[in-house]
Write a structure and sequence with these properties.
With about 575 residues, the protein is an alpha/beta fold. Helices cover about 40% and strands about 20% of the residues. The chain folds into three domains: about 160 residues, Beta Barrel (OB fold (Dihydrolipoamide Acetyltransferase, E2P)), CATH 2.40.50.460; about 200 residues, inorganic pyrophosphatase (n-terminal core), CATH 3.90.1640.30; about 110 residues, Diaminopimelate Epimerase, Chain A, domain 1, CATH 3.10.310.30. A five-stranded parallel beta sheet has the order 3-2-4-5-6, sandwiched between helices. A five-stranded mixed beta sheet has the order 7-8-9-11-10, sandwiched between helices. It has a five-stranded mixed beta barrel with strand order 14-15-16-18-17. Strand 10 and strand 11 form a beta hairpin. The longest helix has about 40 residues. The chain starts with a strand and ends with a strand.
């Protein structure tokens, strides 16, 4: 699909020159930093030299003192604590962290992950009733609960207290819990608002450690869980998240917990492998998610808290198998979805939103179906299925369309909805489907312009091939970990000559580009860009959009370009 190249504005030249001089770096690197709002020596030091000492005081978060005091009371009185979390990566890592940490100080503790098919997202009555039957006195909810007012009130009637640790945007009245930890709630002075759910759990355990004089190094051993949540939940890779991710990756690559080591092994990452954020997003995270989608998220927590190597390896093998099952189901269902959309687009080629419904789709994969449709058609997509007599599903969006806000405009037709700008969940009575479809399609029609329907390709800066040196890449690499708001730098170079174009593994390309002015050439790998093959064979010149990466083969290292998009000229 044709892309629109969007070049970031060139930063202020004076700021760039000052920073380049202060740091003794090339202008091009200073430009990248200023684009990321890094303009002083101290800000550069904070960026390039993350420190755990720069983590904020957790007691700045509204409700933190009440939360820690209530946990201490439960420990002191030997009350039963239940750690309750969502079934996705963020939820299960949150539960594994808080359960794993607190179980060192309190033995009367258990964890609970709701069944996606039976209970759905968030705090459920079934979960509270189970807690009551197990004589639970305190539930710590992680990565959910900020909208669960009714369930929190119900828990009170069962004499169960709640601490809510959530990072989603509140809607209306805050639940009447013992403590609500969510930096996005009103009147919360916590300086960083973009923590993951696991990050909120980490801050609560940091506060517990400070108040009880527990060495923080003990808590830092759980950072491998935090980085998996940060990567998989796609929270902003800036500020406190970047510190936690930096040291989480260090822990993950140096000495991960047994469960993550086992999952890394079955995923093809062995001890000599160095994992990056992208590996967590595309390889580790999906395996954990697959368990919650198709079976029970509890199995993921069991893996993550395991202390037995053999047990962890068995859990990891089963989780890996579940992921293969998910992939098979995903492939079949996605093909069905594409067929539905293609038929609809025959009659309505100007369609600006996709709403697809099939009553026998597995609820655990409708989010994947929606994502695949967004990738293929670049249209906001809602994939729906039938569950317990009502329609439920997942929504995924494009960059210029705020899915959460648009669903809010249809809220009268929905029984529930929630999520983020790019990804949301929803449910409605079956009789509302047609009216909802019409309303949502009208909103999309009135919101999306033709330009918005062309996938954007952000580009940081233009480069010449002679600027791509080992020294340049060495500093570029130190800008990691990459993620939202600190994405891997993307460059473009014009008027290159393509040579020796070859196909790799049926759908990938490898070729060389040559700058005829200097004679410099570099290898290009183009994953998934097989459609460019015919044009590259006859193109005289190309403009290339790419990132720079290191290729290590037989202990020898070289730089190569990873193509993101190609413009050909004949």
């Amino acid at each position: 699909m044709k892309k629109r190249w969007i070049f970031k504005p060139l930063p202020d030249a004076d700021l760039v020159n000052n920073l380049a001089e202060n740091l003794s770096i090339e202008t091009i690197l200073a430009q990248l930093l200023v684009q990321r709002n890094i303009i002083t020596f101290d800000e550069s030091k904070f960026f390039f030299r993350p420190s755990l000492e720069d983590l904020h005081n957790p007691f700045l978060m509204k409700g933190m003192e009440n939360a820690v005091n209530r946990i201490e009371k439960a420990i002191r009185k030997k009350e039963k604590i239940l750690v309750y979390g969502d079934y996705d990566v963020d939820g299960t890592t949150s539960v594994a962290l808080v359960y794993g940490f607190l179980s060192k100080f309190h033995t009367n503790i258990d964890f609970y992950i709701p069944d996606r098919q039976i209970e759905g997202y968030g705090i459920s009555k079934l979960g509270i009733d189970w807690a009551k039957s197990e004589n639970v006195n305190l539930i710590i909810a992680l990565d959910c609960g900020i909208k669960s007012n009714e369930m929190i009130d119900y828990a009170k009637t069962q004499q169960i207290d709640f601490i809510i640790c959530d990072h989603h945007l509140p809607a209306g009245e805050i639940p009447d819990a013992i403590a609500v930890l969510d930096p996005k709630q009103e009147n919360c002075d916590y300086p960083f608002k973009e923590l993951s759910g696991c990050g909120i759990g980490f801050k609560m355990m940091q506060a517990f450690s400070i108040q009880n004089e527990v060495p923080l190094d003990f808590l830092f051993e759980f950072l491998d869980l935090v980085v998996v949540s940060i990567a998989s939940d796609l929270v902003l890779m800036v500020g406190e998240n970047r510190i936690l991710a930096y040291f989480g990756l260090e822990k993950l690559n140096r000495n991960p917990r047994i469960g993550l080591r086992a999952l890394m092994n079955v995923s093809g990452f062995h001890r000599e492998s160095t994992l990056e954020i992208s590996n967590l997003v595309f390889t580790i995270g999906p395996r954990i998610n697959a368990v919650g989608r198709l079976t029970q998220g509890k199995k993921a927590v069991e893996l993550l808290v395991s202390h037995n190597k053999e047990e962890a390896e068995n859990f990891a093998v089963n989780i890996n198998k579940t992921n293969y099952d998910r992939q098979d189901l995903d492939l079949i269902s996605t093909q069905e979805a594409f067929k539905i959309v293609d038929e609809r687009k025959k009659d309505r080629p100007d369609l600006k939103a996709i709403i697809i419904y099939k009553e026998d789709w597995h609820k655990g994969i409708v989010g994947i179906i929606a994502s695949r449709c967004v990738d293929k058609y670049h249209l906001p997509t809602i994939a729906l299925t039938l569950q317990d007599g009502k329609i439920a599903g997942s929504a995924r969006s494009i960059i210029d369309f705020n899915m959460y806000e648009m669903l809010a405009r249809c809220s009268d037709l929905l029984t529930e909805f929630g999520g983020h700008q790019q990804a949301s969940g929803l449910a409605m009575p079956i009789e509302n489907l047609e009216k909802f479809t019409n309303m949502f399609e009208t909103i999309a029609e009135n919101t999306l312009t033709p330009a918005m329907l062309i996938p954007p390709q952000d580009i940081d800066l233009k480069l010449e091939l002679h600027q791509i040196t080992p020294k340049f890449y060495k500093i570029l690499k130190q800008m990691a970990p990459f993620g939202p708001e600190n994405m891997r730098p993307i460059f473009s170079t014009e008027n290159l000559m393509p040579m020796k174009v070859q196909i790799m593994k049926e759908k990938h390309l490898k070729f060389y580009v040559v700058d005829e002015k200097t004679g410099i050439s570099l290898v290009v790998v183009a994953f998934g860009l097989i459609d460019f093959y015919p044009d590259l064979l006859r193109a005289k010149k190309i403009d290339l959009c790419y990132s720079i990466e290191e290729n290590v083969f037989q202990s020898r290292s070289s730089l190569q370009l990873r193509a993101r998009d190609i413009r050909t000229y004949f």
